[in-house]
Amino acid sequence: MITYRRTAIHCQLQKYIYIIFGCDPHGKDGLDRKVWNAFVQHNKEVQPDVIIMGGDLVDFWEISKFNKVPKSRETIFEDIEFAHGLLKELRDACPKARIIYTFGNHCDRLRQYVLENAPLFHGYEKVTLKYMLKLDELGVESIEPKESSVNWNGCSIVLDGVRMGHLKKVSKHSAATVKGLMDDRCISVVQGHVHRLGLFCRTLDDGKVIWGVEAGCLCRLDPEYMDHANWQQGWVDVIDGRPFIYPYINI
Ligand SMILES: [Fe+2]
Q1: Which domains does the chain have, with CATH numbers?
Q2: How many angstroms separate the alpha carbon of residue 24 from the centre of ligand 1?
Q3: Residues with Cβ within 5 Å of ion ligand 1?
Q4: Angle at CA 29, nearest 5°, toward 167 and 132?
Q5: How far, in Å, is the centroid of ligand 1 from the Cα of 205?
Q6: Residue 192 alpha carbon to ligand 1 centre in Å
Q7: Backbone phi, then psi, for 166, in 5-degree steps?
Q8: Whole-structure pTM value
Q9: Rounded to the nearest whole angstrom, what is the distance from the C-alpha of residue 195 to the centroid of ligand 1?
Q10: Contact yes or no for 192/24 (Cβ under 8 A)
Q11: Burial of 122 (0-12, 13-18, 19+ CB in 10 A)
Q12: What is the pLDDT of residue 73?
């Protein structure tokens, strides 16, 4: 089914890029292994041109600013080793794909921690997440906050006319976040960060249609810090600029 669609679009339009966007695994204790395995298997079967890991691959609970119950979650070392392993699984599944990792707010916790506790080390390669995850060795590109920025302001990339990543906006309801982003930016969007699935479309005055998709998450739905998480699991394929949502939903 996927192969047919891919070929048909390629033949009709002579323009083609197949992108798979998955986001928010949230580290060793956050990951839902069933969903992750399905995501990797999907990538393996499709062999996309581009895979976007849309943020919060790590959780970095240990260096977050929230109060925490000691020793109740993974250590920062475990988180880093685990995240490297996840990227390696993706690379092994798709040796030829361009893999792009857009940093989320959780990924930036390391940079924030250095800025706050050891600012003189800020910018030193060996204390960066890119170095610790061995992204160069894995052939993974990264979109990171500007080094000169104190805050995380979102990280994203535009491919095939679609802005994709972990953008700094969260609204309460499904698709409301991408509606806001489309209002701000007037471009089609794939957004991680919100852990919800959603689709919003708008036809512009000139007849062009822009759309926004919220890509769900690859993490568990029962975080200890929430009583009820209005989250949904899944990922998104973007085929020649069109979105196909893959919900991983128990009904
Ligand atoms: Fe997240």
Answers
A1: 2-242 (3.60.21)
A2: 5
A3: 24, 56
A4: 65
A5: 34
A6: 7
A7: -115, 90
A8: 0.92
A9: 6
A10: yes
A11: middle
A12: 83
- d(CA 44, CA 26) in angstroms, rounded, equals 22
C-alpha 26 – ligand 1 centre gap (Å): 6
Asked if the model's pLDDT at residue 15 lies above 70, the reply is: no
- Return phi, psi of residue 107, to 5°: -60, -35
**What is the whole-number distance in angstroms between the Cα of residue 101 and the centre of ligand 1?**
14
Q: Which runs of consecutive H residues, i.e. helices, occur in 97-201?
A: 109-117, 129-132, 135-138, 176-185
Given a cut of 80, whether residue 12 has pLDDT beyond it is: no
Instruction: List the 140-143 sheet strands across, edge first.
Output: 140-143, 98-102, 50-53, 18-22, 233-239, 242-248
pLDDT in tens, 184-240: 999 999 999 999 999 999 999 999 999 999 999 999 999 888 899 999 999 999 999
55-87 per-position pLDDT tens digit: 999 999 988 888 878 777 889 999 999 999 999
Ligand 1: centre distance to CA 194 (Å): 7
Cα–Cα distance measured from residue 119 to residue 142, given in angstroms and rounded to the nearest whole number:
22
Report the side by side order of strands in the sheet with 154-159: 154-159, 162-167, 188-191, 209-215, 197-203
Residue 251 has what pLDDT?
Answer: 63
- Report how far ligand 1's centroid is from the alpha carbon of 10 (Å): 33
